[in-house]
Amino acid sequence: MDYFTNNGGSRVNLDTLFTFKDVSEKTQSHLKKVYLNLMACAGVCALGMYLNAYTVLSGFMWSVGIMIAMGYAMYKVSNEHDDENGRMGWLWALAFGMGYMVGPVMHQLAEFEPLILIQAVGYTAVMFGSFSAVALFSKRRSYLFVGGIISSTLSCLFWYSTLSWMFGYNRMGGDFGLIYLMTGLFVACLYVIYDTQIIIEEAERGHKDVPTHTMKLFIDMFDLFIKIV
């Protein structure tokens, strides 16, 4: 009980509870910066959803243009030779664009049943926080093996989608549709654990790239939110 208590065992030592013993202080400081920027990206993404709530943007050329723009933004964020503040600006632009694209869909859901979005945001926060905590409080590299599970599961989902398209089967219908959705959600959760431990390992080795690490976790969180919705 000495591990959890302080001053004769009467009070819980929160500093002990929230100390990552397998992570250095420099890496903990790096993680704080990453998660602060992650919250900022979530806010920018929500702003993009709100601004495009009443505008439906569609069309082949528009889709291609958005994909190119997002690809370029991801490249700029990942370019370590650029200024970090500039890269963070590109990351915010990426977050805004991702939110802007799904704005009309989110608006339709809110019109149909506002509680859906509120629950989705809550579930995303709880699940992302929980699986991040699993990665943070676990021993370093203890969950890197899930990379193989993710690859195998994504391969199965890809072939299931391909065969469904080839044979004209509705992949979202029936029991298999539910299994498909739940498997995708499971993979999204594994990505949170895997990427978090990858970030910790890179930071411990001196690679403290805040913009890139924030982008990885933001994409994981956004993917988790979309799958929950």
Distance between the termini: 42 Å
Number of strands: 2
What is the general shape? globular
Beta-strand proportion:
under 5%
Given the helix and strand composition, which structural class is it? mainly alpha
Structurally, the number of domains stands at 2
In N-to-C order, the SSE pattern is EEHHHHHHHH
Task: Work out the oligomeric state of the chains in this entry.
Answer: single chain
Measured as a percent range, the helix fraction is over 70%
Low-confidence stretches: 1-19
> Largest beta sheet: what is the strand line-up?
1-2
Topology of this protein?
Layout: E1 5-6, E2 11-12, H1 14-17, H2 25-51, H3 60-78, H4 84-112, H5 114-137, H6 146-166, H7 174-204, H8 210-228
Antiparallel strand pairs: 1-2
Helix pairs in contact: 2-4, 2-8, 3-4, 4-5, 4-8, 5-7, 5-8, 6-7, 7-8
Describe the overall structure:
This protein is mostly helical and 229 residues long. It has 2 domains: 74 residues; 117 residues. The protein is built from 8 helices and 2 strands. It has a two-stranded antiparallel ribbon. Helix 6 runs antiparallel to helix 7 and helix 7 runs antiparallel to helix 8. It is globular. The chain starts with a strand and ends with a helix.
Outline of this structure?
The chain is mostly helical. Helix content is 76%, strand content 2%.
Task: Jot down its keywords.
single chain, 2 domains, two-stranded antiparallel ribbon, 2 strands
